């Protein structure tokens, strides 16, 4: 009788151990599933951030290229305007020179005319 109770106790204890092992395996599987779901959820955000960063890098390179091109064009325009300004100054200088020469020529012309009148009036 005592040995039957012992065997029954051991059988129940073995059954409980098997149930505990089964529940432990289920808990480990559920924990792994939860961990995997959390990692997947975080990876989606990380992947989106990575794609956004790549897009930003591409746009930054494009912007840098455009800014460099704009700076070169601005420099060319600046040189063109500077050359144009220089040409205008030269035209202004030539115009002043021409006015000065014209004034001198009028003076010479009036002097010659005055002298011519003086020579022919004396005769």
UniProtKB/TrEMBL annotation:
Q: Name one GO cellular component term.
A: BLOC-1 complex
**Source superkingdom:** Eukaryota
Q: Which GO terms describe its biological process?
A: endosomal transport
Q: Where is this region: Disordered?
A: 1-24
Q: Which PANTHER family match?
A: BIOGENESIS OF LYSOSOME-RELATED ORGANELLES COMPLEX 1 SUBUNIT 1 (PTHR13073:SF0), BLOC-1 COMPLEX SUBUNIT 1 (PTHR13073)
The similarity annotation says:
Belongs to the BLOC1S1 family.
Q: What is this protein called?
A: Biogenesis of lysosome-related organelles complex 1 subunit 1
Identify the species of origin: Cloeon dipterum
């Amino acid at each position: 009788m005592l040995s039957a109770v012992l065997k029954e106790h051991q059988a129940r204890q073995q059954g409980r151990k098997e149930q505990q092992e089964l529940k432990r395996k289920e808990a480990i599987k559920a924990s792994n599933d939860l961990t995997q779901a959390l990692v997947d959820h975080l990876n989606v955000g990380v992947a989106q951030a990575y794609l956004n960063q790549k897009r930003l890098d591409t746009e930054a390179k494009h912007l840098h290229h455009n800014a460099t091109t704009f700076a070169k064009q601005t420099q060319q325009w600046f040189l063109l305007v500077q050359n144009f300004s220089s040409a205008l100054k030269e035209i202004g200088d030539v115009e002043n020179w021409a006015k000065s020469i014209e004034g001198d020529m009028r003076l010479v012309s009036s002097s010659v005319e005055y002298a011519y009148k003086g020579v022919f009036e004396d005769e």
